[in-house]
Amino acid sequence: MQFPIMAETKPLISLKWEPKLPGLSLDFKTGSSSNTCLWASKSEFVDGLYLPPNDPNKINKMIRKQLKDTTGSNWFDMPAPTMTPELKRDLQLLKLRTVMDPALHYKKSVSRSKLAEKYFQVGTVIEPAEEFYGRLTKKNRKATLADELVSDPKTSQYSCSEEAKSIAAAASSRGKIEKSK
Prior knowledge:
Layout: E1 45-46, E2 49-50, H1 56-66, H2 85-95, H3 97-100, H4 114-118, H5 145-151, H6 153-180
Antiparallel strand pairs: 1-2
GO biological process, one term: RNA processing
GO cellular component, one term: nucleolus
Protein name: Fcf2 pre-rRNA processing C-terminal
């Protein structure tokens, strides 16, 4: 049985493998220091090759620096948001929400861990169709929680009355101090 002789053909798809390495900058002449955690100064190179440190603590520290800043796979790799002044203000308002309305009572801070303060997400609540008449209109919605509280007439009325009470208390105590002299 004879097999037909086929002419050599080049493969249509060229497969190429490259290792996944972090970006290197081997500019020793210019003296630019790269911030990659795998590559260090010239003193750690032996014959032009990088030698990892023998200390396992240093190796673990380098690996931790390389990991992305997320909560982990158990929390769906939620990233830490970038803290803007508006976001800081909203978080501070959430912490001080008991002062805004005396009728509402909240639990104390549920989480005292730094992890809960670092990882969170901000979203928008979409009301169902049944709450058509009870929800805010697009005109009344604001960009941040602070803007919403400033524009809310109930909170502004309560804060004005509390301010008037504190001014009256300060004025009455000032009169008592002056009379005692």
